[in-house]
Amino acid sequence: MRTKNKFIVFILSMLSVFFISCGKEVEKIEESKFLFGTYIKIIVYSDNKEKAMQSIEKAFNEIQRIDEKYNSKSEGSLIYNLNNSDNKTVKLDEEGIKLFEGIKKSYELSKHKYDITIAPLLELWGFTDETIELSTLKLPTKEEIDFTKTFVGYDKVNISEDGILTIESPVKEIDTGSFLKGYAISKAKEILKADGIKSAFITSISSIEVIGEKPENKPWKIGLQNPENPSEMIGIVSLKDRAMGVSGDYQTYVEIDGKMYHHILDKDTGYPVTDKKMVVVLCDNAFDADLLSTTFFLMPIDEVINYVDSREDFDILIVDKDMNIITSKNFKYEEVKK
Prior knowledge:
Elements: E1 8-11, E2 18-21, E3 24-35, E4 38-46, H1 49-70, H2 78-83, E5 89-91, H3 94-109, H4 119-125, H5 142-149, E6 157-159, E7 164-167, H6 180-194, E8 200-203, E9 207-211, E10 220-226, E11 229-239, E12 243-248, E13 253-256, E14 259-262, E15 276-283, H7 286-297, H8 301-309, E16 315-320, E17 325-327, E18 334-335
Antiparallel strand pairs: 1-10, 2-3, 3-4, 4-8, 5-7, 6-7, 8-9, 9-12, 10-11, 11-18, 12-15, 13-14, 15-16, 16-17
Helix pairs in contact: 1-6, 3-7, 6-7
């Protein structure tokens, strides 16, 4: 997929990678792997490099497990096989059932705007690995959009009490792109915490989890890029034991007749959402943050702010179409002066 730029800037202190704690040297250990079609990075601060490296490897193995098990783009996964088979039925285990419970909550919260059966519309616009770079892409006609919309509808996805997932015709496929990386990162964090890691940073660019703080009680700082000018930042967010999810109109796009069309589509109109440029969600785990950043992008701004302000477990920042910044009551960030 084409990306305009890395749309989160990581503000990590480069002054020193060694700290002294209780007489032991604390070192910064950093590893990256290519999974989910992107580079995922894990940073750990520890006074035991060998143990930290083992923990990081286990965390990456967990991310890979989820990629191979559920990713709709990973050949042989449960969802890939479901999408590419005439038999539109699959048995979910306990983990799969919990995943789809979260998806259903977002579907209902968004009044059915968030829909993981959106793939036919994405394909119509050219959002596939084979077509996204083509210079011959054409704007879909109203007739093409209306026809393609008949193949979209999460109401055709049913899960029985014993975990049997069935897709009813004419819906044919599920797309995991809006939630699965966040889920994988949240599970990787659990692996690190279970191994006793006290300070860590995990990112797939659009999804972040942090454990604790950096040495010397310094928070992890993440800079948010200006959606209209990736060389600039609009603010810096400090995180401790939280997750962040970001959805933006500049992350993945096609270019048709010199105009950019982003990949977050309103399934009712068949066109990209136009009232927002970026949504940033802070919460307790990257699965929810990833899921909700897309969900909230699809909802009216006032409705989103009212909902988040009624909760204590979410914070949100929205950049609207006119570059106004709107936040929930508890969202804290340091504004970057131009």
